[in-house]
Amino acid sequence: MKKFKFQLETLLKVTQRKKDDAELKFAEASRHLEECRAKLQVLMSELQDGQAEFAELTGEGKTVNVGTIMMYNSFFNWKRNQIEEQQQVILKATQDKQQKLKILMQLMTYLKSIEQLKDKRRREYNEQLLFEEQKMLDEIGLQLHMRH
Q: Is residue 61 part of a domain?
């Protein structure tokens, strides 16, 4: 009997490559999301540092001119805008990561079904091989029995 050959081997290999690709894209999206979150933490820390500096500058008994107050106010508004923009970036990065995960899960399911089909076909092949072998042994046994 001829050697086992899975008819969908090419599809299996292509799907495996697509799954590997999807894993890389998911990992990249995860890394990007973490970088975005880290950047948000930096921005929030900068805002808190500026607020602490302003609180120290305007502490009890200290006088501050209007220009300094306006400068700090502009800084705080700028930082708040940066934080809001970064939160939007994080939202988009989270959605992107979820989409990449969904694609990865679909490919993993598809790949698993192809692998299960391959295993089933291999079992069927092995059963057929055993059947053919048993049939051949039966024929040999019958021929030996007929000669005696």
A: yes
- Number of compact structural domains in the chain: 1
Which long-range CB contacts under 8 A does 131-135 form with residues at least 24 apart?
132/1
Would the pLDDT of 110 be above 70?
yes
Give, in order, the Cα–Cα distances in Å from 95 to each of 17, 41, 53, 66, 107: 24, 20, 36, 43, 19
Q: Is the dihedral of CA 107, 109, 112, 113 positive or negative?
A: negative
> Could you list the residue range(s) of the whole structural domain that residue 103 is in?
9-120
Q: 13-38: per-residue pLDDT in tens?
A: 999 999 999 999 999 999 999 999 99
The CATH number assigned to the domain holding 104 equals 1.10.287.1700
Q: How far apart are CA 113 and CA 93, in angstroms?
A: 30
